[in-house]
Specification:
Blueprint: H1 15-30, E1 37-40, H2 51-62, E2 67-71, E3 74-76, H3 84-95, H4 106-118, H5 122-138, H6 140-144, E4 162-164, E5 171-173, H7 174-191
Parallel strand pairs: 1-2
Antiparallel strand pairs: 2-3, 4-5
Helix pairs in contact: 2-5, 3-5, 3-7
Length: about 190
């Protein structure tokens, strides 16, 4: 994905977006999980600090493409053994900042920031969707924040989800749950 090689008139014209749309079509048509997106994370999870990468995660979610995360240890899944790397992923998810995310090209950064602002729910919605998507791949708790309508089997809009903890009267939204998960991961990390 070499967006630096030329100027983009819009994010829709980016080679990565066109590839994602192609994969989404194949996945939708065949239902084959081999048509998915893959994100390879380095030891510092720097991709989660890059605006193109975070934006592309949002597009993957919008297009309903399955995502797989990989690192030097292999595939990252809920069932992967606990590791420092999983802690790093959770910490980095909590640190995603769409205002401060890096980009090699200033014009691309402005274009993506405009696109995010124009989406339903803007920055908060995109951030929540990306956090939930990544957390649901590496933790069972993240999965609790994603739900499907039992009759239509369609994903509910994450922005409307509320979670009530058993045995309490406390109800929180998915953004608060993500924030708590990230805070917990950061606290565990700082205790090491």
């Amino acid at each position: 994905n070499n967006q630096i090689a030329f100027e983009l008139a819009s994010w829709q014209e980016s080679p990565f977006n066109e590839a994602l749309q192609f994969v989404a079509t194949l996945h939708s048509y065949t239902g084959d999980s081999r048509f998915s997106a893959v994100m390879l994370l380095d030891e510092d999870c720097n991709a989660l600090q890059r605006i193109w990468c975070v934006f592309e995660l949002w597009r993957i979610s919008s297009l309903k493409i399955p995502l797989q995360l990989f690192c030097s240890e292999g595939a990252l899944q809920k069932t992967s053994p606990a590791s420092t790397f999983k802690d790093t992923v959770m910490k980095r998810v909590g640190e995603i900042d769409l205002e401060e995310a890096q980009a090699s090209n200033t014009e691309d950064k402005k274009m993506i920031r405009r696109a995010i602002k124009e989406t339903e729910g803007g920055y908060a919605s995109v951030l929540k969707i990306v956090r939930l998507m990544v957390l649901s791949l590496v933790t069972y708790m993240g999965t609790l924040a994603v739900s499907r309508d039992p009759f239509t089997k369609q994903n509910l809009k994450e922005i409307n989800l509320k979670i009530k903890f058993e045995g309490t009267e406390e109800t929180i939204d998915t953004q608060t749950l993500c924030d708590r998960l990230c805070d917990t991961a950061n606290a565990l990390r700082s205790e090491e």
